[in-house]
Write a structure and sequence with these properties.
Blueprint (H helix, E strand, L loop, with lengths): L1 H14 L3 H17 L3 E4 L6 H5 L29 E4 L4 H12 L2 E9 L2 H11 L4 H8 L10 H7 L11 H13 L3 E13 L10 E3 L5 E3 L3 H6 L4 E6 L2 H9 L9 H6 L1 H9 L11 H10 L4 H10 L2 H5 L2 H9 L10 H7 L9 H10 L5 H12 L5 H17 L4 H14 L6 H20 L1 H10 L7 H10 L3 E3 L11 E3 L2 E3 L10 H13 L5 H8 L3 H9 L10 H4 L2
Parallel strand pairs: 2-7, 8-10
Antiparallel strand pairs: 1-2, 3-4, 4-7, 5-6, 9-10
């Protein structure tokens, strides 16, 4: 089965002209490996066995029943793109490698357009208003609404404080309404990179971003319209945490199969004790883990999909939870639906579910089924396109002998759900990293939480991870002047806060502390100040943070 799938994928990739694209993405992943930077390929690319075998994505698409057609098929009109996550701190190095290696490279721009506030601010400056005068106006304006002046004053009571009778203000406001959605400048797409076979200027105009990178003048839609392929190189803090933890422990990380069998990992997942773990640490996600008692991979993939706003708001999440807990019986309009949706208890959770149903019930090929899925749920879908696709599905299903009532019920489910559906391949990729993070947290909690803090945290501010450490029985000590390092430091049963957590403490002062300490520990406040010469505010904050507590002083004493 795997061999047949591989041959089929290779045939489609070659036929559609994407061999070079796959090899370039593979080379970027390999460069990350050479430097010790883990990556995570995600999105619909995880549906490809070629991506899996090239180690671009971590998910076996045959085992997880993922459809290659969701990623690439002859009916697809827009080019595919492969999303790659690297550690946030390493992303710029990977981008530098791409620019250096492939020459004809540009990051994709975003077009920053005028909102009401921004337009008023720029027009006000041009008309000679001071910054203070403009701020007095814009602070009352709503962020996301663009109303006519009389409508604005009627809807928002605070806008009655605006000088709406002043002719100059009226002029600026009415001009601003005309500027709405006009481009103001270029930004950089969060990860989009485009590589062309010849100079990019053969295809499009270029410009430079504020940080000096070459970027395209068209945005991602314009780039796609010109036939250029993009890939997304994104930053992910958990991919900084992973190597940070592994560098401090004496054993390698077990493979995913072993992690999935680990009872300790299952335990913290079922209890929702996942603060610090990628994608599963928000309050809503931890609550869902508890309700579903998630402990295996399929359940994790479902949980990370149904928590998405669209699915949750459509009522699908609540229906799945009720069925999972035995409070509601699964419902299948036709017998074959049980086979298709048994894993998700009759609830459509994934975009792949639409493909399965269109394929088995409507008799569409998998490529046609993905085109159907896109027509029902694509970002640029039109009502006419949706109705045409749905009509074809209903006709084919009726021709195959299904009863009209059942087909209409299935169509209704697809119509209400398809716009909210989530890609299973994407969830599966994310879930592999979530399990790895949960395993490391369970078995190396001090190292894990100190690494999360050092890498900039995640969903929460630093104090939450410190309290999580204390909840787990880990002692958290202030940045003691003779023990702390620049970063948070983990030792058996304790974490020592790093100097970088002390407010207003400069990098130069931290370096001086560490360099002076190499020769000799500090034995008094006078000894410290004479050797390090900190600024007065830095010294105050060091005292307040408890840095000198071990030297036998009370903090109040040190201020006198």
């Amino acid at each position: 089965k795997a061999k047949e799938r591989l041959e089929y994928e290779l045939e489609i990739i070659e036929k559609m002209g994407f061999i070079d694209y796959f090899l370039i993405v593979w080379d970027i992943v390999e460069e990350g490996k050479r430097k010790g930077y883990p990556s995570l390929g995600r999105g619909s690319a995880a549906s490809s066995i070629v991506c899996y075998l090239l180690d671009i994505t971590p998910v076996d698409p045959i085992k997880e029943n993922l459809y290659f057609e969701r990623f690439l098929n002859p009916f697809r009109t827009s080019p595919p793109d492969i999303d790659l996550d690297f550690g946030t701190s390493k992303r710029d190095e990977i981008l530098d490698y791409i620019y250096k290696t492939y020459k004809n490279v540009g990051m994709i721009s975003t077009h920053i357009c005028y909102s009401l506030r921004g337009a008023i601010r720029d027009i006000g400056k041009a008309k000679g208003f001071s910054e203070e005068e403009i701020t007095k106006i814009t602070k009352f304006l709503p962020h996301y609404e663009n109303l006519k002046l009389d409508e604005l004053i009627k809807k928002y009571p605070e806008c009655k404080f605006l000088p709406y009778k002043d002719p100059k203000f009226k002029e600026i406001y009415n001009l601003a309404l005309k500027f709405l959605n006009f481009p103001r400048g270029w930004g950089i797409h969060c990860g989009g990179v485009v590589i062309s076979p010849s100079p990019l200027t053969d295809f499009l105009a270029l410009t430079k971003s504020a940080n000096g990178r070459i970027i395209t003048q068209p945005d991602m839609y314009g780039v796609e319209d010109l036939g250029l392929l993009k890939m997304d190189i994104l930053g992910n803090r958990s991919l900084d945490v992973l190597p940070s933890v592994l560098s401090k422990i004496e054993e390698p990380l077990p493979d995913l199969e072993e992690i999935l069998k680990d009872n300790g990992t299952k335990e913290i997942l079922k209890k929702g004790e996942t603060i610090g773990c990628f994608y599963i640490e928000s309050p809503a996600m931890r609550s869902l883990l508890q309700k579903l008692k998630v402990e295996d991979f399929p359940s994790m993939v479902i949980a990370t999909s149904i928590i998405r706003p669209g699915v949750a708001e459509s009522g699908m999440m609540q229906a799945y939870i009720r069925r999972y807990q035995g409070k509601e019986e699964p419902f299948y309009p036709v017998e074959e639906m049980e086979e298709l949706l048994k894993e998700t208890l009759g609830v459509m959770v994934y975009q792949e579910d639409v493909i399965k149903v269109a394929n088995k019930i409507g008799g569409l090929t998998l490529a046609e089924a993905d085109a159907f899925r896109k027509a029902m749920s694509g970002k640029s879908r039109s009502r006419e396109e949706m109705e045409k696709a749905l009509k074809l599905f209903i006709e084919k299903a009726l021709q195959r002998g299904y009863k009209k009532e059942a087909v209409e019920e299935i169509s209704k489910q697809i119509l209400s759900f398809a716009g909210y559906a989530f890609c299973k391949a994407h969830s599966a990729s994310f879930s592999t990293l979530s399990f790895k993070m949960a395993y490391l947290k369970k078995h190396y909690p001090e190292i894990f939480l100190s690494s999360v803090l050092n890498c900039g945290g995640g969903f929460y501010p630093p104090i939450v991870y410190i309290f999580e450490a204390k909840r787990l029985g880990i002692n958290v000590f202030p940045p003691f002047i003779n023990e702390a390092e620049r970063d948070y430091k983990a030792e058996k049963g304790k974490i020592i806060v790093g100097f970088k957590a002390v407010k207003s403490l400069s990098e130069k002062t931290i370096e001086r502390i560490l360099n002076e300490r190499k020769a000799k520990n500090f034995n008094s406040l006078f000894d410290f100040t004479s050797r390090v010469c900190p600024e007065s505010q830095e010294l105050e904050n060091l005292i307040k943070a408890g840095c000198f507590d071990p030297l036998g002083y009370k903090r109040k004493e040190l201020f006198y």
